[in-house]
Write a structure and sequence with these properties.
Blueprint: H1 4-36, E1 43-44, H2 47-54, E2 61-67, H3 76-95, E3 102-108, H4 113-119, E4 126-130, E5 147-148, H5 157-168, H6 182-209, H7 212-227, H8 230-236, E6 242-243, E7 250-251, H9 262-285, H10 292-320
Parallel strand pairs: 1-3, 2-3
Antiparallel strand pairs: 2-4, 4-5, 6-7
Length: 335
Amino acid sequence: MRLLPPLLALLALLPSANAKKETKLQRLTALATNSARSGPGPLALTDKTFEDLTSGPRNYTALVLLTALDPRFGCHLCKEFQPEFELLAKSWLRKHKDSNGFFFANLDFSHGRHTFQKLGLTSAPVLYLFPATYGPTSKPNTSLEPLRYEFLPVQHQADHVSHFVSQHTPFTLPVRRPTDYTQPLLLIATLTLLAVLFTLALPHILPLLTHPTLWAAVSLISVLVFISGHMFNHIRHTPYVGHNPKTGMPTYIAGGFSTQFAAESQIVGLVYAFLSFGTIALGMKIPRIKEAKRQGVAVAVWSGVVLILFSFLMALFKVKNGSYPFWLPPFMGAL
């Protein structure tokens, strides 16, 4: 019976201790609510309020940014990260008006020199996560010491901070960026301008686009590019020229069918191009010459060009295949 009065007194003290802990959370919630009336965002701290917010035990979580925004300090990273931190705070507070046990806070160096000195900080910004040490949002064996976020060289830090918080707490911070209408409007304006210019220019360019000579030239050039081995060079990344190991001189034709040089494709493409022009001249241009003498000279010249080029092409092929038995003058064998 003698132990009953002390035991009752001890039990009477326990609710008052819990009430004290709850009072701190309620005070911080009220402070966040009042701050949100002027617009959602992080709490502005001083040395005293920083100590009050971060001291344990805590039945809430706090994300505190220690920064130096005064232009005198020249902290460019502070200015770059501040909008990302405010974006996180606003995204959370829009959905959780009373903070829901998660607080965002700012401590600027100009209002927290003592805290910077106490923590031994010589640079900014520094982002600390103070997880809950007890309560429904705490994890087992949570230390009173904060967790420090390591800044990454990325454009959108808010997404990485959200991932960092979700790794160490049960909270998932949303990141809701305001819609940027600049790119869509710029795209619409560009497309509109192009449509207007195209409409105005269409009567002038339509005859050119529908001219058969243009499409014949495009088709001919495409055929010449692909039959000369351009795609093989692009896929295999072949060297431009080779080198003779005996003489050290550059070689433009690679022996065998399994490889080739880029210069070889260009040589073959030029040969095919002149053969095409010669064939077109003999079949289409020369018959239009009315003077018989000039027509005969043109036939002889272009026939000679075609013969020489075919002879060169067969000699080139003999380099690729040494057992090729055919030839045409003036190139009687391999090059």
